[in-house]
Design goal:
heterodimer, A: mainly alpha, Four Helix Bundle (Hemerythrin (Met), subunit A), flat, B: Porin, six-stranded mixed beta sheet, membrane (chain A), ATPase_proteolipid_c-like_dom (chain A)
Chain lengths: ~210, ~450
């Protein structure tokens, strides 16, 4: 099992090497202008960006929540063996982690409701439609990424704190409520991500009507 | 000395190649005289001939197949049931290889030759006035892939003919042979599949023109497509092939622009159902626009890249729609702005077609697209540039947008996969209660 890490590092290194070689080839044969991120960003399909944003929003949030529940749950189970009274009270920590996943779910539903198709013949008449669709798709993508990563961090944070809360509660009952306050602050950062994510997509207009 | 040896070798080769050999089966009815066939394993042509000439039989039936191999007997054991019965119930002899056996028929002068019509065996008669009749049966086995079927047909033919001969006379002999073996056949007849004769390669219709400051190339003549008004507003496309173009270039228009004009004269495409078009002159004017490097010092201000803009297509001629003749003289602007190459590169694209920018086509026959196959062009060449195109700057990149999109998305998924594999790899085993000095686990071997 210890070898796997080295395999993964090698694979990552190979990937970076191939990327470097391709970039250097273009650069050194006088075709440096072919390395064009703007061309990539504007010519790729807006649907790719939008759908990826939706996916990342929920996926990363769920990963964060899962890691949090994993950390807390293990501690609650372990400490609950010696001090069974903590079991019911510490479920609150699990619920805080779950909330993080729900933030991601809400954002993903909101974002996917904004995705709409556009027709190329309407674009030919009004190029602004394509511009707005690209703009909206990028907003959706990065909104999803924002919410996803924020919830990932939040979930890990709440989980670690909840784990500490369970162990402290098992040692002394009065500690639980104090550590819960820390957990609430940790949960608030997930909410920040949700708010910013919704703010980002407030100007999204996809579809044929975008003009 | 050496040339003599070569000649000798060639002579031997020629004779061996000319020699056709095939296996020979000979059998006689037991009623004929008990002159045993020569019992030597390899009967020669002359020996067999002598023997057959001296036979006491009234009829000799000679079956000549196109091809006969020893492998036909060993490889298809169930192919000759009736022949096997006949053969083994008579005095018989088998020679695996005899040279030119089919020519025996000409050499057997004691016999009167009768060629048997395989479709009409019933009308066979012994040749009257002769003592011995030679029945020649040419078994027309085609060089079919179904060798088994051909052999079975041969077998049936043999039994049919022999049944008829037996009804004519009791004293007969028979012989089965072939003109040659499969290997010794004429070179013209090929049993193996050969490649279909390839078509003549099409004449090279490409055009390369060195105009001093501009190189231009097309791999095939240009094509213009007209959009023809049809029934109920539907438009169809009419393809007009242009021939070779004549080129004219203006290299000194200015420091930052050059012009090339392609002309086609007297194009008369094949008649459309409704229209007849005669184009006297078609001109395509390409204006190359250079983008300078922007250095304030005029000596150092060089061309860094160029584009093709504006481009105009002018055509004039007559259009006849069977009711009236209309003189047309039109000028269409085309959008060639994607044609771009940096300095010292040549723009290249395969089968690129440029359609008209405006969409509403009201004329009956309106120009809709120009196609320049295999178009390659390089402008703003310096005087000491080599005579060939610079490196090609293709109209599509090597890594296209779909490739990059795929790589981007698979990177995201691979990162997820890698993270999960790392997590799996970090699961530790329980070692709280391990004791290095403890007894290893003993599992009794229960029978």
């Amino acid at each position: 099992m210890g070898y796997y890490n080295s395999y993964l590092y090698s694979a990552g290194g190979l990937y970076l090497f191939v990327l470097t070689v391709i970039a250097l080839y273009y650069l050194l044969t006088g075709q440096g202008e072919r390395i064009d991120f703007g061309w990539f960003l504007t010519n790729t399909s807006p649907y790719m960006w939008a759908a990826t944003g939706v996916g990342l929003a929920v996926a990363l949030s769920v990963v964060g929540a899962a890691l949090g529940i994993f950390t807390t749950g293990v501690s609650v189970m372990g400490a609950g063996v010696r001090a069974p009274r903590i079991k019911t009270k510490n479920l609150v920590s699990i619920i805080f982690c779950e909330a993080v996943a729900i933030y991601g779910l809400i954002v993903a539903i909101v974002l996917s409701g904004m995705i709409d198709t556009y027709d190329l013949d309407k674009v030919a008449k009004n190029p602004l439609i394509l511009d707005n669709n690209i703009y909206s798709a990028h907003l959706i993508f990065w909104s999803g990424v924002t919410v996803g990563f924020v919830n990932l961090a939040c979930g890990i944070c709440v989980g670690t704190v909840g784990s500490g809360a369970a162990l402290a509660d098992a040692a002394e009952a009065s500690l639980f409520v104090r550590i819960l306050i820390v957990e609430i602050f940790g949960s608030a950062i997930g909410l920040f991500g949700l708010i910013v994510g919704i703010l980002q997509v407030s100007q999204v207009k996809m579809g044929n009507a975008a003009a | 000395m050496r040339s003599l040896k070569v000649l000798l070798l060639l002579g031997v080769a020629v004779t061996t190649l000319a020699d056709k050999s095939a296996p020979v089966l000979v059998w006689e009815s037991t009623e004929s005289s008990a002159q045993a066939l020569p019992a030597i394993p390899a009967m020669s042509n002359s020996q067999l001939q002598k023997h057959l000439n001296s036979l006491d039989s009234e009829a000799l039936v000679m079956f000549i197949m196109n091809e006969l191999n020893v492998e036909d007997f060993s490889g298809y054991p169930s192919a000759f049931p009736q022949l096997r019965r006949e053969f083994e119930s008579s005095l018989n002899a088998f020679t695996p290889s005899m040279s030119n056996p089919s020519q025996l028929s000409e050499q057997l002068d004691a016999y009167r030759r009768v060629t048997v019509d395989t479709q009409d065996v019933e009308s066979l008669q012994l040749a009257d006035g002769a003592q011995k009749t030679l029945f020649l049966v040419y078994v027309g086995d085609r060089a079919a892939s179904e060798r088994q079927a051909a052999l079975q047909r041969t077998d049936e033919l043999i039994s049919t003919v022999l049944a008829r001969v037996k009804s004519l006379t009791g004293k007969y002999s028979a012989m089965l042979t072939g003109k040659h073996t499969t290997m010794g056949g004429e070179a013209q007849r090929r049993k193996v599949r050969s490649l279909k004769a390839a078509d003549e390669p099409a004449a090279d219709a490409s055009q390369f023109e060195n105009l001093g400051c501009v190189f231009i190339y097309m791999s095939a003549p240009a094509v213009i497509r007209f959009s023809v008004a049809g029934d109920k507003g539907a438009r169809s496309t009419w393809r007009v092939d242009l021939g070779n173009a004549t080129f004219a270039a203006d290299c000194n228009a200015s420091d930052s622009s050059q012009t090339v004009t392609l002309s086609w004269n007297n194009i008369s495409p094949e008649d459309h159902d409704q229209y007849k078009l005669t184009l006297d002159k078609i001109d395509l004017q390409l204006n190359f626009q250079a983008k300078m490097s922007g250095n304030d010092d005029p000596d150092k201000n060089k061309v860094s890249s160029w584009t093709l803009e504006p481009v105009t297509l002018t055509y004039s001629g007559t259009l006849d729609n069977h009711q009236q003749q209309e003189t047309i003289d039109r000028e269409e602007p085309l959008d060639f702005s994607n044609v771009y190459a940096p300095m010292e590169f040549s723009y290249h694209c395969t089968n690129r077609s440029w359609t008209l920018s405006r969409q509403n086509l009201t004329e009956e026959v309106a120009f809709s697209a120009l196609e320049l196959p295999g178009f390659q062009v390089q402008a703003f060449l310096s005087d000491d540039a080599p005579e060939t195109f610079g490196r090609a700057w293709d109209c599509t990149t090597f890594f296209t947008i779909p490739i990059w999109s795929g790589l981007f998305l698979s990177l995201i998924l691979l990162l997820v996969l890698v993270w999960s594999l790392m997590m799996l790899a970090s699961v530790p085993t329980m070692d709280r209660f391990d004791d290095p000095r403890g007894q290893p686990l003993h599992v009794p071997n229960a029978e």
